[in-house]
């Protein structure tokens, strides 16, 4: 097995309060291999989004990284200075955010939102950016005319596919998806995840997929980590987490899933 | 409500603002104990500079400026809080009704609100006051109360529109609660910070506007208030003849009262809207970063 | 387009509302309305003159709705009557002359205050929690809380009377004749600077605090985090992702802020004895020159409505979501 794309080592993150701290992430370690689809599951507030934001150093005060390392391709993200950090973002780690409706800048055209990435990182001209943007949109089945549109003129599912296309603009090594489909209906959600999976196999990037929906995760991921109150309590193969969870909390999570849903997933897993 | 008060007691801006306000209030209440002179009595020679007998000097006609100032605080506070209360009550009631009822009622209220907002307030007040003649502080307070509620309606309505979609309102509706009960007991308590901001903002507005109208010569020249002090000082060409104390005393008083109220208002905004709260909460974070106990 | 037309219709209604206030006020006051309106007239006013004035203000022997229509007709034909104090000078002429000074003074001060204030607000929001933010916020609170009249008087006291850097009144040296000469223009600038700076300070804080709060409210939005995640430069995210979006609520607040602009300009002009609308109004109030006072309300309302319309237009230009409507 080659060196992991992402390696989180003994990461602890606190939210600093006026007189005491809230320990959001407690001594978490995990690796994501090249091309791997890795899922991080847990209830809201368990620290999984905090980890996602910390990987691209997007966490805001009062979040504070107390200990640990975040290695992307062997380089500690926490050591990057401001310039190096700007360069690192999006070229190595791109991110899809929770709210599909709200992650595109409402006052810029889709084209401008491709162009600012391509210009900043690759120095492309407007003309070159447009060509590249058209190719990228084609990957997610969106017609090139959409480049002229503003976000509000596109549906929620379309917007999230556009975000994914922007994510792929620089061929990142890791794609982080923080609850990327919660705002979308089930059909669109499924379409998008399938498309991502196909692109992953084509382009070879790894994925860190974050959701509270363990069932959905079991369908798409290679490996799954389960978080409880800031701790990573179990990491394993998707199949093992599904069929033979070892930690009591993972068992409880499965037990809390609606029956009907559980049966469905079982059926699909065998497909 | 309780949360808001606890938050305010921890907010530095609120504490400073409230302290100044309380001091002004105490000075106004105990004015007779703080000066040997009567408010309108001629007690010295004209335009005496500040001295031991007359702390803030005397006016053109020999009144004691300090005495006028502390008695004037009564007027400013009364007009400010009286008119502020009126403005807030009208604005809140209309805003909640418009936002909750929607439909025709909302359209009518909204139309008038917007119309009042685009007619410039001060010139309108000037025309009203000019026809009334020499308006006493009470009359000024009433005019302000009846003409200045539009901004309050706008913000309260906007907030009501979002609160009315909340689950607890929906469930009260399902239970068949009457509309007035929902508006009073479900919606109003959730608007408390916006109402507070509207109230303090209206008090500031009323204090400033009363002083302005009086300064422009529309007030009752026999009243004892900061605006009338400014008016008399202006008429006496106080600055030209070098009697700066005559002009600066009411200026200072108005600035201090305005500042204390604005600090309180800003604090309510910070407490009610956690995103705006930035100060002390992050001090420890900054310290930890500086001492290298964590990384950003 | 439909949006702007709707706004125009609304502004027309608002203007008529202001005119209606003018029409009814003397009529609801106790006493004889004609006596109220023209009681302080000076001896120059002959019977014919007075009759012409009455007609302008709708004081005719007819039912009240006809009086009202007569009055509206006068206004929409640009006839605001004549000044009682400076009879027979038409109100529109007196106000017209003053408007030039006010528009120059207030226009420049407002535009500068909006640009600088918004800039400070952007900076404070971006650096929220730092000393710079605290300093800007406190400065803004201070300038919005202290009445314009106090700020103006203090500026006059310090810079005109104590330091003697600026004159204490007039738009230009009264000994000069208006001409396109450097002497005249420099005199205008010299006299205009202090009132303009005062006006600027009066308005600055409001713009700064509005922009700051609007922008801080947006900073948690996903599209701003995504802008940072994209590795864009700090400036690009600050201006094109955060500030550009925060500008929308700020611009719609601007419409309300214009009321403060009008009020503030009145005060500044009175204090600095500047020959704009504010000063004309002040003189008219002292002389109880009602036609001028009433004309003033209409002119200021019209100015405010025009400014509001400009704000609407810029809002449509700024927000792509409104364009297709």
From TrEMBL, chain A:
Classification via SMART domains: AAA (SM00382)
PANTHER family xrefs: ATPASE AAA-TYPE CORE DOMAIN-CONTAINING PROTEIN, OLIGOPEPTIDE TRANSPORT ATP-BINDING PROTEIN APPD
Keywords: ATP-binding, Cell inner membrane, Cell membrane, Membrane, Nucleotide-binding, Translocase, Transport
Single GO MF annotation: ATP hydrolysis activity
Name of protein: Peptide/nickel transport system ATP-binding protein
GO cellular component labels: plasma membrane
InterPro entries attached to this UniProt entry: AAA+_ATPase, ABC_Ni/Peptide_Import, ABC_transporter-like_ATP-bd, ABC_transporter-like_CS, Oligopep_ABC_C, P-loop_NTPase
Domain (ABC transporter) ranges: 8-254
Family statement drawn from the similarity comment of this UniProt entry: Belongs to the ABC transporter superfamily.
Organism name: Pelagibacterium luteolum
Membrane topology label: Peripheral membrane protein
Localization (cell): Cell inner membrane
One Pfam family it belongs to: ABC_tran
TrEMBL record, chain B:
Keywords assigned by UniProt, alphabetized: Cell membrane, Membrane, Peptide transport, Protein transport, Transmembrane, Transmembrane helix, Transport
Topology in membrane: Multi-pass membrane protein
One GO location term (cellular component): plasma membrane
Subcellular location(s) of the protein: Cell membrane
Main localization of the protein described in the UniProt heading: membrane
UniProt domain ABC transmembrane type-1: residue ranges: 73-265
GO BP, sorted A to Z: protein transport
Signal peptide: none
Example GO molecular function: dipeptide transmembrane transporter activity
Membrane spanning stretches: 14-34, 77-99, 111-132, 138-156, 187-208, 247-268
Domain of life: Bacteria
Family under the similarity heading: Belongs to the binding-protein-dependent transport system permease family.
Name by which UniProt lists this protein: Peptide/nickel transport system permease protein
Taxonomy of the source species: Bacteria, Pseudomonadati, Pseudomonadota, Alphaproteobacteria, Hyphomicrobiales
Automatic annotation (TrEMBL), chain C:
A Pfam family hit: BPD_transp_1_N
Gene3D superfamilies, sorted: MetI-like
UniProt cross-references to PANTHER family, sorted A to Z: OLIGOPEPTIDE TRANSPORT SYSTEM PERMEASE PROTEIN
InterPro entries, A to Z: BPD_transp_1_N, MetI-like, MetI-like_sf
Upper lineage: Bacteria, Pseudomonadati, Pseudomonadota, Alphaproteobacteria, Hyphomicrobiales
GO cellular component: plasma membrane
Family: Belongs to the binding-protein-dependent transport system permease family.
Protein localization: Cell membrane
Chief location bin: membrane
UniProt-listed GO biological process terms: transmembrane transport
Superkingdom as given in the UniProt entry: Bacteria
The protein's name: Peptide/nickel transport system permease protein
Residue intervals passing through the bilayer: 7-25, 100-126, 138-161, 181-209, 246-267, 297-318
Residue ranges of domain ABC transmembrane type-1 in the record: 99-311
Swiss-Prot/TrEMBL keywords: Cell membrane, Membrane, Transmembrane, Transmembrane helix, Transport
PROSITE patterns per record: ABC_TM1 (PS50928)
Membrane topology: Multi-pass membrane protein
